[in-house]
Specification:
The protein is of the alpha/beta class and 341 residues long. It has a single domain, classed as Ribonuclease Z/Hydroxyacylglutathione hydrolase-like (Metallo-beta-lactamase, Chain A, 4-Layer Sandwich). The chain has 10 helices and 14 strands. A 7-stranded mixed sheet has the order 1-2-3-4-5-6-7. A 5-stranded mixed sheet has the order 8-9-10-11-12. A two-stranded antiparallel sheet has the order 13-14. Helix 1 links the parallel strand 4 and strand 5. The radius of gyration is 20 Å and the shape is globular. Bound molecules: zinc ion. Zinc ion binds next to loops.
């Protein structure tokens, strides 16, 4: 069945909420970034709630939660918190909410390990790792210093590391009130992201695996400097195509939408076009990831955007490298360059 992209529901305001289906609530929490909100999802059980994603740890986000606890939870406890992945806008308040309600926390093992490892990283160590990684991809010292000066910018966005009660795996079934949710693992944006699919009610909580208006960031990270996350991401997108075309997708950013297959096709085209631009630039001269930035991103990049843009440029070059279309070598300055084989 073909289904055009459509947005059937009006989004709640930041700090607000609305019902999506019987016992399914869409909450919108504030974020202190250019991307100013995250959607999290509250699922009614029998006199308790399951929450999917927690929001970032910040005073406005906690204030939004106080209002939700008073006005939406109706005196019922949060019994379970499902965290889709380790990024701070999703994981940030998991530990705070767990302490407050004694909730069980469910997440995949790889995402939990990533959260614990990054949270524990010292500022100096985090800065040095970013500096060395981006130096190897040709980023100028001044711009590297701006990024490194931020130290461990993950830790302040988390209210500690939650203790896990259940590790989720691909295909795990979760009984949530009278409904069943099935975990579908997505890779590439983060290492082992848990999406939650409810076949009987026809919705998919997609985390950041698939977003309606923006493409998910796909980055090679300093912890896995030779990785090929774009291959993982495209594989995961292809798997999501097995879901019904008219499923209601509940994403972490932007609006709930129908038209999953069309959105998957648009994202595949987006990445293919980026790969094509890099293929053609590399055929003219060996290219570094820093030189790829203006080819991929036309807008000016502040230091927040630069971090993600560099990761994304490396991810696209690595896709062509891992596919055997480009070779990678270090030039006389020690910078990785990519050139056709
Ligand atoms: Zn994310």
């Amino acid at each position: 069945m073909k289904c055009r992209l459509e947005y059937p529901l009006e989004a709640p305001p930041i700090g607000g909420w609305r019902a999506v289906a019987e016992g399914v609530y869409w909450l919108r929490l504030p974020l202190p970034f250019a991307l100013d909100h995250i959607n999290v999802w509250l699922l009614k059980e029998h006199q308790s709630w399951t929450l999917v994603d927690a929001g970032v740890s910040s005073p406005p986000s906690r204030a939004a939660w106080e209002s939700i606890i008073t006005n939406v939870l109706s005196g019922w406890p949060l019994r379970r918190i499902v965290i889709t992945h380790f990024h701070p806008d999703h994981y940030g308040l998991a530990n705070w909410l767990q302490q407050r309600f004694g909730a069980r926390v469910c997440i995949t093992r790889t995402e939990q390990d990533a959260a614990a490892r990054l949270y524990a990283c010292f500022d100096e160590q985090a800065g040095k790792r970013i500096d060395e990684f981006f130096a190897g991809h040709g980023l100028e010292a001044e711009r590297r210093a701006q990024l490194a000066a931020r130290g461990n910018f993950y830790r302040p966005l988390l209210a500690g590391v939650a203790s896990v009660d259940e590790y989720l795996t691909d295909g795990s079934d979760l009984q949530i009130g009278d409904r069943r949710g099935k975990v579908i693992i997505g890779r590439g944006h983060s290492p082992e992201q848990a999406c939650l699919y409810c076949e009987e009610e026809g919705w998919l909580i997609s985390g950041d695996q698939i977003l309606p208006e923006i493409s998910s960031n796909i980055s090679v990270r300093p912890e896995q400097p030779d990785g090929d996350p774009l291959a993982d991401y495209l594989d995961s997108l292809a798997r999501l195509r097995c879901l019904p075309a008219d499923v209601l997708v509940l994403p972490s950013h932007g609006s709930a939408f129908r038209g999953l297959h069309e959105r998957i096709s648009a994202l595949e085209r987006h990445h293919r076009a980026r790969l094509e631009r890099l293929r053609s630039a590399c055929s003219e001269a060996p290219l570094s990831a820093t030189e790829a930035l203006p080819i991929l991103f036309r807008r000016p990049l502040d230091s927040y955007a630069l971090f993600f843009a560099m990761g994304e440029a490396i991810a696209h070059l690595h896709r062509l490298w891992h596919a055997g279309e480009l070779s990678r070598y270090r030039d006389a300055q020690g910078v990785y360059r990519f050139t056709p084989i």
